[in-house]
What we know:
Helices cover 38% and strands 14% of the residues. It has twelve helices and 13 strands. The chain folds into two domains: 8-33 and 270-359, Aspartate Aminotransferase, domain 1, CATH 3.90.1150.10; 36-269, Type I PLP-dependent aspartate aminotransferase-like (Major domain) (Aspartate Aminotransferase, domain 2, 3-Layer(aba) Sandwich), CATH 3.40.640. The radius of gyration is 20 Å and the shape is globular. The chain starts with 7 loop residues before the first helix and ends with a helix.
Amino acid sequence: MPKHGGNLKELSQEMGMDMTQALDFSANINPLGLPQAFKEVIVSHLDQLDRYPDYSYRDLRQTLADYYQMSYDHLLVGNGAAELIDLLAFALPYPMVTIEPCFNEYSASAKKYQRPHWSHLTQAENDFTFSLETFWSWLDDHRDRELDQGMAFSVWLCQPNNPTGTLYNPNLLSELLSGVSDRGGFLLVDESFIDFLPDQADYSLLGRVEKEENLVIIRSLTKFYAMPGLRLGVAMTSNQSLLHDLEGAQLTWSVNALAEACGRKMSDLSAYRQDSLNYLAAAKKDLQAGLENYTSLKIFPSAANFFLIQGPKDLAQNLLEKGIVLRQTADFKGLGPGYYRLAVRTKEENQALLQALADIL
C-alpha cells in the first residue's frame, strides 16, 4: 500500500485497476476543497509564472507573522510541513524522541540523517493516552544509558496526533515543555491538524514561542485549506541560531509562486474557516454515530478531522473492491493489521462509506 494517504495513482498500479475515481478516505483533507479566494488568486497570478518568487518570501512571511501573531524574524516558510520536518531533523543533530504511534515522516527523517531515534509507545487499550510521569521515567532512563552528560535531544509530537486523533491536554503540554527545557532538550510540536479545532488557541503552544527558544511549532496549510498539490507550511521558533541553520539548509525558492500567492490571502479566509468548522462538526458527528452502529469496529476518540478505527483485517480490501479507500496503518509503530484511519469527508461520501460497511459487516 502507498506509504501516505491520497496516492490513488500508486494504489491503481498496485491493484492493477483504475482507482483514481475512488472515494478517498485515506487523506485528511478538508472536503470543502480549495477556498474560492485561493482559486481566484491562482488565476490572477498565472501570467506571473515567468518570474521568480522572492526567495526571502518577505510579503508571505509578514502575512503569516500577522496571522499567527508572531515576530517576522521567528518564522520560516517551506514546501509543506514535510520539508520543514526534514530540515529540522537535519538542523538538530541530536537523538530524536517520538511519542508513538505518530506521523512517520519524523522517524523517516531521523533515519535519513542517521539520528538516534527513541520511540515512546502509547497503548491502544488506553486509547493512546499519554502519561507524563511514565514518559519522564522512560526518557531519563534512556538519557542516562545512551547520552553523554549534557547532550541535547529533541522530542517530537503532533497536536492533535496523527493517526490517532489524540488531543494533548494544554497543561500537560506546558509541563512537557518545561521538563524538556530543564533537561536541555528541544520540543517540536507539529500542529498540522490544529486548524480543525474550533478552540485551537486553547490547545496550541504558539503563544510560548516568543519566550521559549527550545520550542518549535510547525503549521501546515495543506490539510485545512485543501492544497496538497500546492504545499505550504511554516515553522516558528525564537531560536535564531536554529533558524539560521534551517535557512542555510533550505533550497532556494522551495515555495512556488502560486502557493506563495495563496498564503498571502490568509487574512481573507475567516468565512471559509468558520464554514469548514461548522460543516465538519456536523459531518463528523453523523459519521461517528454511523460507525458506532457496528460492534465489530472500535472507534478511538478523536479531536481531528479523522478517526482511527480497529476492525476486521480484511476490511480495507473489501472496501477497495467497492471503490472506497482507507488508510491502512500497519506501518505506524504500535499499530498493526486491522487498524485503519479514515477522514471525515462530505456528508454524501460519509453516507456511501456507511452503506458499504453495512454490506460488508
